[in-house]
Specification:
This protein has 518 residues and is mainly alpha-helical. The strands form three sheets. Strands 1-3-2 form a three-stranded antiparallel sheet, covered by helices on one side. Strands 6-7-8 form a three-stranded mixed sheet, covered by helices on one side. Helix 3 packs across helix 9 and helix 9 packs across helix 13. The longest helix is centred in the N-terminal third of the chain and has 119 residues. It is flat.
Length: 518
């Protein structure tokens, strides 16, 4: 094909050249020379074509030889693999045949062993039958001698062992209980002392008034306003009483709510700095200040939970924690008290091998019922438990909040830890606003109130006056009377005395029977 194309091209070239010579009408000589050149070109083309043909034939032969060699090589490799596979199959067949022969031998040996075992089992059964006959005969002889059946003798032996074991178990149980009580009291004191020593808390008594200092007494007139309009607007917007008296360059802000006092103080500061004091401006400034305080409350709450390492707390609970900064309980700052309780709970829980993070969480939230958004008739413990349950807290935390004043039953181990740490924080010297003489007088009044009832032998006010334990004479007061006495004392305390929190009344009646063996 290539040769034909080359020949065609050459012929075309020759035709073109010949045409040129004809159209040019050259001389005969030139035509002859052209013919001669054309013949020469055709001869050269034929020679080139022959050479190309020979080269292509040689290349085709070489390619054929190469392909044939590769094919032969593949065939040899395939045959080699087939031979190897046949050899492996033969080896496996030989191994299987040898295993079958071994299995046949083992089966024959097992048959022999089975026959031997069968004969031995028969011999053993015969001997067992003979032994049972001898044993029955021996038991009949023993029963005849002891005048007891085997079941009666066994029953007597078991009964005697049971009584002896029960006596020893009771003795060991009492020893263990006494030892545990002794060690438990000692260990509890040690843990409480260590927790108190390791937790240092600042104590600050919150006041119910704030003094706002002025640059001059002239500003008092602006704050009062014409016919007292400004001061009435401030008191209505903030809920704080402003006392303007003869005290130079000072106004007293009076309220039992520290949050309101802080809003009033900041609002007055902005109004005095701005100089424009009128009812509309007062309402605007108070509203802005209230929003600023809300942001500050959230910031305080977030900082508190981060410092205590408490995570996953609901945002509303974080806000309530921040509000504690502006609340006080008997003069003790509520946030400082809750932080101290949380740290004490974490230390105690770690010492007892419990979860310190869960204990810290419960300690921080135990008084959230003291900062409600709305007034309610529930006690702060029950309200706090309700809030914690509403915002998805852990059941152990919910129970600890509700039980830290024994208003609900303690269901988790951390509940008594929260109660103990709350008592420790409130009982620190200087923690709460109460004069020592008043405290001692209240304790004495509690004890004297209980001692006034007939049948009462002793009365002790414990846990900083939060519990009254009354010991009665067993001969004069029955169990039914004890329940009635506890109720009556609690009712009398509630109607006649003034006290913080709540007081638990426990009546103890003990009956002892004592005899002496001589």
């Amino acid at each position: 094909m290539v040769i034909d194309i080359v020949v065609g091209i050459i012929a075309l070239v020759i035709g073109i050249i010949a045409g040129k010579f004809l159209f040019a009408k050259n001389t005969q000589k030139q035509v002859e020379e052209a013919e001669h050149q054309a013949k020469k070109i055709v001869a050269d083309a034929q020679i080139t074509a022959e050479n190309l043909k020979k080269e292509k034939l040689l290349e085709a032969k070489e390619r054929f030889v190469q392909l044939k060699a590769e094919h032969d090589k593949e065939v040899l490799e395939r045959n080699r693999k087939l031979n190897e596979g046949d050899a492996r199959i033969k080896q496996k067949e030989q191994g299987i045949n040898s295993k079958l022969e071994n299995l046949d031998k083992q089966a024959k040996e097992n048959d022999v062993i089975k026959e031997n075992l069968t004969r031995q089992i028969e011999v053993v059964n015969q001997k067992r039958t003979e032994l049972e006959k001898h044993q029955e005969e021996h038991i009949r002889r023993l029963e005849k001698i002891a005048a007891l059946t085997a079941d009666e003798a066994r029953h007597q032996l078991i009964e005697s062992l049971r009584q002896e074991t029960q006596t020893r178990a009771l003795a060991m149980q009492q020893e263990i209980i006494d030892d545990a009580k002794q060690k438990a009291n000692k260990e509890a004191r040690k843990i409480i002392i260590q927790s108190i020593q390791r937790t240092a808390a600042e104590q600050a008594i919150e006041n119910s008034i704030t003094v706002f200092n002025l640059e001059s007494d002239e500003i008092k007139g602006q704050i009062i306003g014409r016919e007292g309009r400004n001061i009435r607007a401030i008191e209505a917007a903030t809920g704080v009483d402003l006392i303007v008296d003869d005290t130079p360059e000072a106004i007293v802000l009076s309220s039992f709510d520290p949050l309101r006092r802080e809003i009033a103080r900041l609002s007055l500061q902005r109004l005095v700095t701005d100089g424009r004091i009128h009812p509309a401006r007062i309402e605007e400034i108070v509203e802005k200040t209230r929003k600023q305080i809300e942001e500050q409350v959230m910031e305080i709450g977030e900082r508190t939970v981060i410092e205590l390492g408490i995570h996953g707390l609901h945002k509303e609970l974080v806000r309530i924690v921040g509000k504690m900064r502006f609340r006080s309980s008997y003069g003790q700052n509520l946030l400082m008290h809750s932080r101290e309780v949380a740290n004490l709970c974490g230390i105690m829980a770690a010492e007892l091998g419990m979860n310190p993070k869960l204990a810290k969480r419960a300690g921080l939230l135990h008084d959230i019922g003291k900062v409600p958004d709305e007034e309610t008739e529930l006690s702060h413990a029950l309200l706090g438990m309700k809030l914690a349950e509403k915002y998805g807290e852990n059941p152990a935390v919910i129970n600890a909040i509700g039980a830290h004043h024994d208003e609900v039953e303690m269901q988790y181990v951390i509940a008594p830890i929260i109660q103990a740490c709350d008592a420790i924080s409130g009982a620190r010297p200087g923690a709460r606003r109460e004069i020592m003489q008043q405290y001692l007088q209240r304790i004495k009044d509690l004890e004297n109130l209980a001692l006034a009832y007939p049948g009462v032998e002793k009365a002790y006010a414990i846990q900083a006056g939060r519990e009254l334990r009354v010991i009665v004479e067993a001969d004069k007061v029955t169990d039914i009377d004890s329940d009635k006495l506890s109720f009556e004392i609690a009712q009398k305390i509630q109607t006649e005395m003034t006290y913080p929190g709540q007081i638990k009344v426990t009546v103890i009646r003990e009956k002892r029977a004592v005899n002496v063996a001589r």
